[in-house]
UniProtKB/TrEMBL annotation:
CDD domains: AAT_like. Pfam families: Aminotran_1_2 (PF00155). This is Aminotransferase. It comes from the Bacteria.
Amino acid sequence: MLSPLVATLRSSPIQVMAEQTRQAIQQGCSVIDMTLGEPDFPTPAHICEAAARAIADGQTRYTPINGTPLLREAIVEKFRRDNGLECTMAQINVGCGGKQVIYQAFLATLSPGDEVMIPAPYWASYSDIVSMNGGVLRPLATAPDEAYALRPEVLEAAITPKTKWLVLNSPSNPSGTAYTQQQLEQFAAVIRGSRNQDFLIMVDDIYEHILYDGRTFVTFAQVAPDLAHRILTVNGVSKAYSMTGWRVGYACGPGFLIDAMTKVQMQINSHTSSVSQAAAAAALAGPQDEVRRRCGIFQQRRDYLLAQFAQIDGLATPRPEGAFYLFPDVRSFIGRKTPAGLRLDDDVALASYLLGAGVAVVPGSGFGMPGFMRLSYATSDENLRVAAARMAASLGNLQ
């Protein structure tokens, strides 16, 4: 018998579509996979070499729960160098990817009925991790014509005595929204003026280095150092360094929270791979030129798809400021019929139709915004060319 919690737990909509895509490809279908947020570039050579050296040097045993001293030192320096944050090694938590770090933070703090505010659209796993730990998701509405940016007045109206967390993900998965210093300062002013001075702020910066059009990245703790005792800054090496399979995420936060998260991790998996930690230290401390070069390629891909999608009648695609996703509004296609006469009643049906046309996307309902869809352009230029052509043809055939 399953627990009531697990019995009601949904499968990740991203993984559901990714699995359907794999099955279609195994059956011989030609499909451009735009489901997973995984860079198509290899892990840089110097990072792989650091992992190989760690194995050769016998670094294959247990490490401290919060990470090796080498990695934590590299994280402390990264926060100082890139973000102007002064963290100590005792304030660092290292886990098996950013997802584990986030899970541990919620498990350590949420009680049944506690509310977690998250701007929609949001990364699908946030919602499920909140519910798994007894929390209640409070989605904060945004609009595509405002680039999916949270407005301060919406945040202010959503805070209640039950609020336990605010989650800010910038640049955002799935929208690519990246908040400016001025926007973050406005959020900070709302938080300072709130009657509830006990809730925490989770800042997910995993796409920090994938930022476009000359924008400068700013993290919340930079603009609101007086709130540092309430801020957990989460990051990782998966996206910027093409290290999704290495499973290393980390966070800097107040000591009481890091200590609690460490107690949780102690009973779950002890620590992430010692070899992966050596590789992550090399990624953070090593040269960053390749990261910037790849960001330029992602921007070119974004611009190409935006130009192609602008020619598709009914497809409204806000311009993302970072990450490597598009999150177009497809509500004009809902209710139409396919050439075979099948009515597309929602974004899930539309995603299924596009999969049959050879393009795999994720329905926006999985991100808290039905009637939209997410496409990852972390794939080759040729794949993007084919995908754009197939989408134009398939959407143009709807009646």
